[in-house]
Amino acid sequence: MDQIKAVIIDDEPDNVKTLQLLIGKYCPDVTVQATFTDPKVAIKALPKTDYDLLFLDVEMPDMTGFELLKKLPKHPTGIIFVTAHSTYAVKAFKFNALDYLLKPVDVEELIMAVTKYKKSGDSIDTQSVKKLMANLEFLSKPTLSKLVLPTQDGVELITTEDIIFLKADRNYTQIKRFDKKDLIVAKTLGDFEEILVPPRFMRINKQYLINLDKVARYIRNTGNVIMCENTEIQISRTRKDEFLSFLKV
């Protein structure tokens, strides 16, 4: 790959300077073409700027990084998001398999992210960015309760309130919904466990992640739960106390 032309957008001048110095010292294949601390200025300048890779701050006061992306007529071939230590954001990035760096930026993680971009050489998947934005919105404001999932036919938005349980099937997950067709998604149950968290969802054994609002009955002598559509699921011994604490029994 030829020399990579990069742009940095971050509202903090010190963060821009630090990242630029790290790129210059540890990423010789990357040349920083331009830097911006004002996202509104960046939006006007980027269509006229020749660049490949965008280092984009997520949390900016006047405009988030995702709002900036929505306003760009064309996305760069690569985006590496830069974010503060925010648990929900990190989970969403991992779930959507997009590159991100945590502040303060670690040298090894920077090198790995740039190396990954160099190896892929592919244009960024715009749908992945859209799914990330939707899931970030859900995770930061759980009352929205929506997930954006890839399916064989395209992309489907589902309401988490409709989910009865999720069942592991090797590298896939079956999503059981009430009065709706089951979904099979190419994500592991562990992926979903990271973003579907208590107080609504709980992993009760290796194979099942259940919606606690959809539990119809708990059978004490068997240690099983009956879900609202009559599926009976065994609670593992290691999860029993946590489940009972939810029931407050």
Topology:
Elements: E1 4-9, H1 13-26, E2 30-36, H2 39-45, E3 53-57, H3 65-71, E4 78-83, H4 87-96, E5 100-102, H5 107-120, H6 126-140, E6 146-151, E7 154-159, E8 163-169, E9 172-177, E10 183-185, H7 189-195, E11 201-203, E12 208-211, E13 215-219, E14 224-227, E15 232-234, H8 237-247
Parallel strand pairs: 1-2, 1-3, 3-4, 4-5
Antiparallel strand pairs: 6-7, 8-9, 8-12, 9-10, 11-12, 13-14, 14-15
Helix pairs in contact: 4-6, 4-7
Task: Outline the structure in words.
- This protein is of the alpha/beta class and about 250 residues long.
- Helix content is about 35%, strand content about 30%.
- The chain is built from eight helices and 15 strands.
- The protein has helices spanning about 15-25, 40-45, 65-70, 85-95, 105-120, 125-140, 190-195, 235-245, and strands at about 5-10, 30-35, 55, 80-85, 100, 145-150, 155-160, 165-170, 170-175, 185, 200-205, 210, 215-220, 225, 230-235.
- It has a five-stranded parallel β-sheet, sandwiched between helices.
- It is elongated, with a radius of gyration of 21 Å.
- The protein starts with a strand and ends with a helix.
Multimeric state of these chains? single chain
Number of strands: 15
Distance between the termini: 62 Å
The largest pleated sheet is described as: 5 strands, parallel
The percent range for strand residues is 25-35%
Radius of gyration, in angstroms, nearest whole number: 21 Å
Strand order of the largest sheet: 2-1-3-4-5
